[in-house]
Amino acid sequence: MNVDELAETLQGRIVAGHIPVGTWLRQEQIADEFAVSRTPVREAFRKLQQARMLDLVPNRGAVVRGPTVRDIEEAYIVRAELEGLAAATAATRITPAQLARLRASEERFREVSEAMHRTSRGNGRAPMAAWSRANDAFHTVIQRAAGNERLQETVTALHRTFPRSLTSLPLVTDSNLLDANCAEHREIRLALEQGDPDASREAMRRHILHSGELVAAWYAERGD
To answer: Which of 21, 32, 44, 120 is deepest in the core (most CB within 10 A)?
Structure first.
């Protein structure tokens, strides 16, 4: 396994939540697990530090870094513009089959949102993971309908800078926020069904910016 592959594997685990924020990573442990020397591990850590996934602490190792409020605000502003562009483009290109998938994704998202709220006072890990997958599916249909691979790759790369549970955490205990999120998806879908680029762009921008405000506020309450 080379440095890039190792960095990508570790980043994938962090983004998926398998390695939680605050976890210390030791060079020797990673080297043993992947049967490599410490040199590629050290280089992989540096790549993840550049990607803002790790903080390197001399004589201690690497700790998984959580996003700052500013990180979140900046990322969601960029994401709102990119996904707004994708929605506007998709409005003129989306096919009947893609609209059918979008409606199915919207319904699945509503179902798992209800399930997530029902289990919010217990172990909500499974429904939170399902919620993230359903949310991704909805947005992915739109990005693919836009037909711009570079745009989709850029949005995906932006997503990979944050743990997957990031968006769901502020919503999990508030049914009103979950319902509002579902309503925003419905508004986006209706605009796309009508083939309205401006309405699609604006509905998507509002949705992403609103999500960013919720996530930033949630993190601000718990310390930057």
So the answer is: 44
Pick from 57-71, 75-89, 208-222 the range whose average pLDDT is largest: 75-89
Instruction: Give the domain ranges of the chain.
Output: 3-64, 69-221
CA 208, CA 184: separation in Å to the nearest integer?
9
21: nearest Cα among 155, 171, 169: 169
Write down the pTM of the prediction.
0.79
Query: CB neighbours of 12 closer than 8 A, spacing ≥ 6?
Result: none
Q: For residue 11, what are its two tokens? A: 């980043």
Determine the pLDDT at residue 222: 63
Q: Kindly report the length of the chain.
A: 224
Residue 162 contacts residue 67 (beta carbons within 8 Å): yes
Contact 84, 92 (CB under 8 A): no
Architecture of domain 3-64: Orthogonal Bundle (1.10)
State yes or no: pLDDT of 122 exceeds 50. Answer: no
